[in-house]
Write a sequence for this structure.
């Protein structure tokens, strides 16, 4: 589904990703872990097409197409979804209005019928159950005045409405208390199936107790420096990142790929 | 989007010219011009007197050229044609007899006038250059006692009402452009809602300038008697000409005890091209008087067109407990300039006013809010709330807020909030990440910004306003 080869990306002239490789197949759940500032969000935003990031080398194939050639909105309509680490507020635009527009853009893209506000309301009500979100959030402005946890929940609601093929969840666990974490993770699990894939970005292993990854990748120094199964996350929890980062810098890094 | 690129050259789809034979008087303005206009309209002597008085006063006035935020070349008032009317039969038995070219023109503008096609629920007075060419649903409204007709007819058929109310809110000597209008106005609409009547449909006037050399000077007068309600809509467009054209209208509203007038405008005059060539100078005086107790006047405007907009729809809150409201969206792009706002003059006790202004500036445009809240000594317990928000698109546009506040008693309160924001790249990216194109994303953000104002518009107008802002913003993103 996704193939990243030797990806280099920079922001404001600073190279953050320095030769990153990653392969993701349908039905898989991948976790990307790494210390603060290692470039996890950078990777997510490059995949989503954020205009501030410049790809200086490498390629990304999504379902066989050159992802980097596609505009951000086209990527989204083609099924690439990113749950933002810091969701954005859109004053005056109701959640329902925003979600319907997004939903209908996708319907249009695939030549399917668009939904009117009433039809969409039913669909939204159904999908909101996935994250146990109250109907009152649908008439409120997008993310405006939402608590940190509510914003994260709202991200997963959007995922539930748009049903992406590839979802990149950037630190969706941060800001969630344990009950909310359980709900949100449960929602993500409901949305995961054999036809799609999820990349969970986190630097805590806590989330991975609920969303169990098939593969864990450690991002440091702009590359994937170690890969493993879910037990790697537990090891990181115990030992921290330093030892991997240092080992990598000494050139002994990059563990054998897990798959 | 790169915020350095904005609102590209969106085709103005109302820019066509109707080829029609017109009755045009020579350009220039003298007392003779006024005699000619008055004669063409078969006016009574008192009307001619009103005009001449205004004209003589106008001669003593100077054009207010000192507004700090508006820049434009001197207007040559002798180079304007003050009367241009399409030639047609003097009296029409039915609307179907209106010149087909005119019917076609208005239909193209989305205003079908013929009996079969008329908009349901909205009565329309269609004004073409200097004259009203048709008014729909006149008879139906008359059954409810509602008078809705062209100003020319009103002078003929309801002279007492016109003499009583014309100039009672905006005196002939009020300001330079109001005086000019009072001297040369050629048509417009008159609405009268008798005591206790809720007007059964929306009333509206659609203004169209067609002649490249003429100015448009129209007059609107709305009188709502005790306990009556009316909602009035105004729309306007003009062809694209390289030369600037003057539009100097006067609108007067009068609300008696317990009456309510809601006046909504979607202004889409030709704005000029990207370099600022051509476009309408929209210098308009709009004022409402809440003459009676518990009366209410609400102005809602969506200003998207004109090279220059200079207008301050205002409320004189004379009756105790009367309410004035002003909801405004002003969008400027390219070289457009807007200096708009309101005046709320509190005279009566417990009077309340609300001002919500949303200014959006893109391109090299300049967008100013200018508003006066004046609370007189006798206006005990008066309340005002003002909120002025500006949104800048790109880095070459400007937005300003000029609030003037004068409170002359202790029991009143005036509250003012202001903000300036930009569409952030992060907002755009967020929406795009959900599959929304950058253009739709800009549109959505702007509509969210304007929501509090759009909520005030009648349903169909809100849809139109949303669409219009979308069009004006098309091509705004790279
Ligand atoms: N505009 C910028 N200019 C330079 N460096 C930046 C800019 N934005 C982010 N960075 C740097 O990029 C690195 C990666 O950030 P990020 O991808 O957010 O890390 P993570 O998500 O792993 O915590 C950090 O060192 C951060 O300081
Ligand atoms: Mg991050």
């Amino acid at each position: 589904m996704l193939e990243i080869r030797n990806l280099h990306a920079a922001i404001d002239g600073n190279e953050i990703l320095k030769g990153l490789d990653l392969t993701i197949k349908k039905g898989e759940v991948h976790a990307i872990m790494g210390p603060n500032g290692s470039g996890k969000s950078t990777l997510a935003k490059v995949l989503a097409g954020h205009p501030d990031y410049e790809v200086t080398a490498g390629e990304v194939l999504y379902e066989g197409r050159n992802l980097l050639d596609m505009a951000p909105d086209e990527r989204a309509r083609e099924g690439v979804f990113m749950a933002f680490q810091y969701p954005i507020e859109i004053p005056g635009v109701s959640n329902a209005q925003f979600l319907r527009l997004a939903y209908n853009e996708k319907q249009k893209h695939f030549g399917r019928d668009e939904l009117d506000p009433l039809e969409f309301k039913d669909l939204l009500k159904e999908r909101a159950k996935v994250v146990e979100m109250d109907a009152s959030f649908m008439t409120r402005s997008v993310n405006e005045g939402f608590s940190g946890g509510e914003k994260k929940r709202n991200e997963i609601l959007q995922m539930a409405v748009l049903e992406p093929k590839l979802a990149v969840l950037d630190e969706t666990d941060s800001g969630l208390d344990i009950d909310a974490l359980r709900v949100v993770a449960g929602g993500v699990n409901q949305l995961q199936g054999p036809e799609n894939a999820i990349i969970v970005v986190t630097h805590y292993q806590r989330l991975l107790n609920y969303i169990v990854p098939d593969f864990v990748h450690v991002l440091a120094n702009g590359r994937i420096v170690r890969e493993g199964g879910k037990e790697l996350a537990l090891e990181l929890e115990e030992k921290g990142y330093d030892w991997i980062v240092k080992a990598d810098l000494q050139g002994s890094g990059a563990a054998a790929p897990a798959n | 989007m790169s915020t350095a690129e904005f609102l590209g050259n969106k085709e103005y789809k109302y820019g066509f010219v109707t080829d029609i034979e017109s009755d045009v008087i020579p350009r220039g303005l003298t007392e003779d011009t006024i005699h000619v206009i008055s004669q063409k309209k078969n006016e009574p002597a008192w009307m001619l007197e009103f005009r001449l008085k205004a004209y003589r006063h106008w001669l003593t006035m100077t054009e207010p050229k000192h507004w700090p935020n508006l820049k434009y070349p001197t207007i040559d008032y002798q180079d304007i044609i003050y009367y241009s009317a399409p030639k047609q039969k003097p009296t029409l038995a039915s609307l179907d007899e209106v010149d087909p070219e005119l019917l076609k023109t208005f239909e193209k503008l989305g205003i079908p006038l013929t009996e079969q096609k008329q908009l349901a629920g909205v009565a329309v007075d269609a004004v073409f250059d200097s004259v009203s060419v048709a008014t729909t649903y006149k008879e139906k409204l008359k059954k409810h006692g509602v008078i809705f007709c062209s100003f020319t007819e009103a002078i003929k058929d309801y002279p007492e009402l016109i003499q009583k109310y014309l100039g009672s809110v905006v005196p002939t000597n009020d300001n330079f452009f109001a005086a000019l209008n009072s001297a040369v106005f050629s048509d417009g609409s008159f609405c009268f809602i008798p005591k206790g009547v809720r007007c059964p449909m929306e009333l509206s006037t659609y203004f169209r300038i067609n002649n490249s050399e003429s100015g448009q000077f129209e007059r609107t007068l709305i009188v709502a008697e005790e306990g009556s309600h009316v909602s009035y809509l105004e729309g306007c467009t003009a062809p694209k000409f390289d030369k600037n054209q003057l539009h100097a209208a006067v609108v007067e509203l009068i609300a008696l005890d317990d009456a309510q007038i809601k006046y909504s405008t979607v202004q889409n005059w030709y704005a000029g091209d990207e370099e600022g060539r051509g476009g309408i100078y929209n210098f308009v005086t709009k004022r409402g008087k809440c003459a009676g107790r518990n009366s209410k006047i609400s102005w809602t405007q969506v200003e998207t067109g004109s090279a220059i907009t200079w207008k301050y729809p205002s409320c004189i809150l004379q009756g105790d407990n009367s309410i004035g409201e002003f909801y405004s969206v002003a969008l400027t792009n390219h070289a457009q300039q807007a200096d708009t706002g309101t005046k709320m003059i509190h005279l009566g006790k417990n009077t309340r006013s609300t001002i919500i202004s949303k200014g959006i500036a893109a391109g090299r445009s300049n967008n100013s809010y200018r508003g006066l809240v004046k609370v007189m000594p006798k206006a005990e317990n008066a309340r005002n709330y003002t909120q002025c928000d500006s949104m800048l698109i790109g880095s070459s546009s400007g937005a300003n807020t000029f609030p003037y506040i004068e409170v002359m008693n202790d029991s009143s309160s005036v509250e003012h909030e202001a903000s300036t924001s930009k569409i952030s790249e992060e907002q755009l990216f967020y929406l795009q990440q959900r599959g929304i194109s950058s253009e739709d994303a800009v549109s959505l953000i702007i509509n969210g910004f304007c929501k509090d104002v759009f909520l005030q518009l009648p349903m169909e107008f809100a849809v139109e306003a949303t669409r219009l802002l979308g069009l004006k913003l098309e091509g705004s993103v790279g």
About this structure: DSSP finds eleven helices and 24 strands in chain B. The CA atoms of residues 130 and 186 of chain B lie 5 Å apart.
